[in-house]
């Protein structure tokens, strides 16, 4: 659905007398399949928004190629515009207009006839639970309501792909969860969703696949599970009484699925395994068989932050 | 066809938003009326005009051109607010014609200027101003072209500077010499030779003279077609340039 090769963009910025070239995006290759929620993860200033704006025809790339929804981004941006929807980060509604007016206008800007535009606006208002406020001015809406209007505006023409730039930034936790549901609903309707985010939990919970971007480059790409598995496998932490720990260590050390075993000081073991979900039942069975009582068992999966740390050498939270 | 449809859509929306805010009507009419009531009475003795009506024939066209210039030049402020709200970016990802994004807005400005001009003309009629309707319509065409140009230029500059803080001093700096060198408040016939020479380079001074000739019923005056011609060319250039600003990437 989106295919980019070597997409580049640099800006000239002036500091005093010197002009400096800043490479905002330095050669991005992406492949986004139809019908997936693709997440673009990275700290602020990593080049996420610039890439998104290039794909949405708002900025002209300096180099590289891209096909978006089957149209050539460089040669036929007008066709790309017809096939995509775009929801900007900073909002896109006018204070003095109502949601209905905005939706009808947006549909008509896409060339849709008057009657059809009204029908679509009505449908969108229902789908996004905005009927109650439909004719009030946008400035009276809450942050979450306004964001829903903006997403509705972005998909009023039923695009194949919708680009959402940090759709949940600034929302309270409840509105955020609500927004995730809305985004999943877009996928069930057959749309490809491309979102940028700097929230790890969001990328993890919402996205089918993610690309991690840092300093204008994609440093990792895959499903959240793949990326996490790739770096360190998983850790099963077994809580045991101190006396039974040596015996358990002896038993589990010989198991094939345990790649490394460490003893925890106060009693218990850390088992490094490829996949915790299959290792846990085996560990339980083994210990039960030997008549050893365990206090607790927990699975520690590496987070996307661990992935980010491995790929870039710093934590996403601190950058 | 698509251009006309898109322009109409933008025009409709902008007009609707304008009408929703009745303050502009008050502001837009209040100031010129003050000029008519408080400034114009000075003119008969100052210009040595035979009657009050004759003084109005000189002053009213100038006042209308002034409104067209200033009304247009300050439209950019509204656009900066729209930029900030993300409305412009939202339009730019749709296939809407870029020229329509400009024309829809500028035509709204032209229509509101003409509405203002009609109100002022009607008021001036009460002060014994008399103009032949055909000539008046030609004068309105001149005003429409001026407003189209100045509002387009203002939008183009707004898209470039993107901030009110830069736009306000810029527009004031442009507007002041344009105003003083156009003979709007007092005809340049009173000006010394060097000042008249400088004013010849100000297209608006041609427009003002042309509009005065029309109000005077002097259709044969060369300034009429010269003023219209100059302003029409500049309006076309302004629209072309500003539409390109709408099409260009805004970071």
UniProtKB/TrEMBL annotation, chain A:
PROSITE patterns: ABC_TRANSPORTER_1, ABC_TRANSPORTER_2. InterPro entries: AAA+_ATPase (IPR003593), ABC_transporter-like_ATP-bd (IPR003439), ABC_transporter-like_CS (IPR017871), ABC_transporter_ATP-binding (IPR050763), DrrA (IPR005894), DrrA1/2-like_C (IPR025302), P-loop_NTPase (IPR027417). Keywords: Antibiotic resistance, ATP-binding, Nucleotide-binding, Transport. Pfam families: ABC_tran (PF00005), DrrA1-3_C (PF13732). SMART domains: AAA. It is a peripheral membrane protein. Belongs to the ABC transporter superfamily. Drug exporter-1 (DrugE1) (TC 3.A.1.105) family. PANTHER family: ABC TRANSPORTER ATP-BINDING PROTEIN, ABC TRANSPORTER ATP-BINDING PROTEIN NATA. This is ABC-2 type transport system ATP-binding protein. It comes from Micromonospora tulbaghiae.
TrEMBL record, chain B:
It is found in: Cell membrane; Membrane. Pfam families: ABC2_membrane. It is a multi-pass membrane protein. Keywords: Antibiotic resistance, Cell membrane, Membrane, Transmembrane, Transmembrane helix, Transport. One of its GO terms (cellular component) is ATP-binding cassette (ABC) transporter complex. One of its GO terms (molecular function) is ABC-type transporter activity. The chain crosses the membrane at residues 21-43, 63-85, 106-127, 133-157, 178-195, 224-243. Belongs to the ABC-2 integral membrane protein family. This is Transport permease protein.
């Amino acid at each position: 659905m989106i295919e980019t090769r070597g997409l580049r963009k640099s800006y000239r910025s002036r500091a005093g007398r010197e002009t400096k070239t800043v490479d905002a995006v330095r050669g991005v290759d992406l492949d986004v399949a139809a019908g997936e929620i693709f997440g673009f993860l990275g700290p602020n200033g990593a080049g996420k928004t610039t890439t998104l704006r290039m794909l949405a025809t708002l900025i002209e790339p300096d180099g590289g190629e891209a096909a978006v929804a089957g149209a050539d981004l460089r040669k036929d941006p007008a066709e790309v515009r017809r096939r995509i929807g775009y929801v900007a980060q900073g909002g896109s509604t006018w204070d003095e207009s109502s949601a209905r007016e905005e939706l009808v206008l947006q549909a008509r800007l896409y060339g849709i006839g008057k009657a059809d535009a009204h029908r679509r606006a009505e449908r969108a208002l229902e789908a996004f639970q905005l009927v109650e406020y439909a004719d009030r001015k946008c400035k009276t809406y809450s942050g979450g309501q306004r964001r829903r209007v903006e997403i509705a505006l972005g998909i009023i023409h039923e695009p194949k792909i919708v680009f959402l730039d940090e759709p949940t930034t600034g929302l309270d936790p409840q509105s955020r969860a609500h927004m995730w549901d809305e985004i999943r609903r877009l996928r069930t309707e057959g749309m490809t969703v491309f979102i940028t985010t700097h929230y790890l939990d969001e990328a993890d919970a919402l996205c089918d696949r993610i690309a991690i971007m840092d300093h204008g480059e994609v440093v990792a790409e895959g499903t959240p599970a793949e990326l996490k598995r790739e770096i360190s496998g998983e850790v099963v932490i077994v809580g045991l009484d101190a006396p039974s720990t040596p015996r358990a260590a002896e038993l589990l050390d010989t198991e094939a699925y345990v790649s490394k075993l460490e003893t925890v000081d106060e009693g218990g073991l850390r088992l490094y395994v490829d996949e915790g979900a299959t290792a846990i039942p085996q560990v339980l069975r083994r210990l039960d068989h030997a008549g050893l009582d365990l206090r607790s068992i927990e699975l520690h999966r590496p987070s996307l932050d661990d992935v980010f740390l491995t790929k870039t050498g710093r934590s996403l939270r601190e950058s | 066809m698509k251009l006309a449809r898109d322009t109409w859509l933008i025009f409709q929306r902008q007009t609707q938003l304008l009408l929703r805010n009745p303050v502009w009507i008050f502001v837009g009419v209040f100031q010129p009326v003050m000029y008519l009531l408080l400034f114009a009475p000075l003119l008969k003795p100052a210009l040595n005009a035979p009657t009050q009506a004759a003084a109005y024939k000189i002053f009213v066209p100038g006042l209308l051109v002034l409104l067209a210039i200033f009304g247009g030049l300050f439209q950019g402020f509204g656009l900066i607010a729209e930029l900030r709200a993300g409305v412009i970016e939202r339009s730019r990802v749709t296939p809407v014609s870029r020229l329509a994004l400009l024309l829809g807005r500028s035509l709204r400005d032209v229509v509101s200027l003409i509405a203002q001009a009609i109100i002022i003309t009607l008021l001036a009629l009460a002060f014994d101003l008399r103009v032949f309707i055909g000539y008046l319509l030609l004068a309105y065409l001149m005003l429409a072209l001026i407003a189209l140009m100045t509002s387009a230029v203002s939008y183009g500059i707004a898209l470039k500077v993107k901030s009110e803080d830069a736009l306000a001093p810029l527009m004031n700096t442009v507007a002041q010499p344009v105003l003083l060198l156009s003979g709007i408040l007092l005809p340049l016939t009173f000006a010394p030779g060097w000042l008249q020479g400088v004013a010849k380079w100000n297209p608006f001074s041609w427009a003002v003279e042309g509009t005065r000739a029309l109000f005077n019923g002097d259709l044969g005056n060369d300034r009429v077609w010269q003023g219209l011609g100059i302003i029409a060319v500049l309006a076309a250039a302004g629209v072309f340039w500003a539409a390109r600003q709408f099409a260009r990437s805004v970071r």
